[in-house]
Amino acid sequence: MKIPPAPVDLSASDFLTRIMPDKRLAEPSYRQLTNRLRALIESGEIADGQSLPSERTLAEMLALSRVTVRRAYDELRAQNVLDTQGRAGVIVKAPPRLTPRLGKLKGFTEEMRELGMEPSARLLERAVAQDRTIASMMNKPSNTHFLRLLRLRLGDGIVLSRDLAWYDLSAAPDMEGWDAEDSAYQFLTERCGIALSHSEQTVEAVLSSPEECAAFGFNEPQPCLLMKRKTYARSGQIVEYMERTFRGDVYACRVQLAMP
């Protein structure tokens, strides 16, 4: 049997070794194959536009059933990682990696437009609530009311992040009437009359929660980036606290460093 051309940066034998399911594991073979192929695609070892073996060919090469390979390929198609293009066969669609520049106070809407993408939002939960932990974090009395929003943020129709945000209604009461579809920072500035000063932000690596897996279309926890941000008005008040989880397969941080 003729082995098809190896993907970029991998020999044919290395390719098969890297994706071969381990039958000693309890995890189903199709799931192992799905995850191993996706890992190679996300790392760039299998390039965007690269052809993969057909279901039948790969099943023979790995001594697996064709149903197993088909299920793995179907999973990757559902995740928008593979495409089938007639005679061209199975084609890799590596997700573009977004690399917004850090260092300036920008919201998701501004970031996406800067990257040439169309931003949108999907509201999951909206409530006016009291939260003692958030109040303490924002140096407010425990009975302070906050606008609590849970949203999915999309770029060009693709879910990129899951955002949980709190806005201080004692500082910005008009936020209660915000439709949560456009830029929060623009609304705070133009409608609430608040001059924003700066934010304090941390970024850490996490595994996606069950809710995030459902939002991002993951079958199991995957690496993500968790951004925690406090946004300050020029008065010194904290007007926003946000926890934003970005899917790690499409998002990376870019920072420009200057000499001291």
TrEMBL record:
CDD domains hit by this protein: WHTH_GntR
Keywords, sorted A to Z: DNA-binding, Transcription, Transcription regulation
Q: Name one GO molecular function term.
A: DNA binding
Task: Please give the InterPro entries that the UniProt record associates with this protein.
Answer: Bact_HTH_transcr_reg (IPR050679), Chorismate_lyase_/UTRA_dom_sf (IPR028978), Tscrpt_reg_HTH_GntR (IPR000524), UTRA (IPR011663), WH-like_DNA-bd_sf (IPR036388), WH_DNA-bd_sf (IPR036390)
One GO BP annotation is: negative regulation of DNA-templated transcription
SMART domains (alphabetical): HTH_GNTR, UTRA
Keyword Transcription found? yes
Q: Does the keyword Acetylation apply?
A: no
The UniProt record lists the HTH gntR-type domain at: 27-95
Q: Which domain of life is it from?
A: Bacteria
- What PANTHER family does the database record attribute to this sequence? MANNOSYL-D-GLYCERATE TRANSPORT/METABOLISM SYSTEM REPRESSOR MNGR-RELATED, MANNOSYL-D-GLYCERATE TRANSPORT_METABOLISM SYSTEM REPRESSOR MNGR-RELATED
Q: What is this protein called?
A: GntR family transcriptional regulator
Supply the source organism for this entry.
Answer: Candidatus Macondimonas diazotrophica
